[in-house]
Design goal:
Helices cover about 10% and strands about 45% of the residues. The chain is mostly beta strands. The strands form 2 sheets. The protein has a 5-stranded mixed β-sheet with strand order 6-7-4-1-9, with no helix packed on it. Strands 2-3-8-5 form a 4-stranded antiparallel β-sheet. About 15% of the residues are buried.
């Protein structure tokens, strides 16, 4: 028997709900354009694109140390249960980019190691969630 133990500390992730559009229809899903951590590892900058007039709710994993968000609304459901609510304007049915920043604070943020530069451009902390979840209009 082989045993493998992995120690994970201050893990954080964003789940982007996604569903396939009906056959022949255009996607209405939120798209990730870019993500970048600050040098100290305490601020995450996101650029996403969504359909104008839509509101997207993204579940967050490991979000206890997440203190605030700008460019999006941080919805706290207590403890580690948080959502990032992104509203896309103007309400014209076209895709528009939305920029957001997530700021971490407290002891967990002070311990957070900045991601390696090469990993931040290749790896993604944003996970697609494949099930029928649609934008809230």
């Amino acid at each position: 028997t082989n045993d493998l133990q992995l120690e994970v500390r201050d893990d954080f992730g964003i789940v982007v709900p996604w569903s396939a559009p009906p056959l022949g229809a255009a996607s209405r899903s939120l798209k990730t354009i870019s993500q970048e951590w600050s040098a100290d590892g305490n601020t995450l900058s996101l650029v996403m694109a969504g359909l104008g007039g839509s509101t997207y709710e993204l579940p967050l994993r490991g979000a206890a140390a997440l203190a605030r968000a700008s460019g999006a609304e941080l919805v706290d459901h207590g403890g580690d249960q948080k959502l990032l609510r992104i509203r896309v304007q103007p309400a014209d049915g076209q895709y528009h980019q939305v920029s957001s920043q997530l700021v971490f604070a407290g002891a967990a943020a002070a311990r957070r190691d900045p991601p390696p530069r090469e990993a931040s451009s290749r790896g993604s902390l944003i996970s697609p969630l494949v099930h029928p979840v649609h934008a809230v209009h």
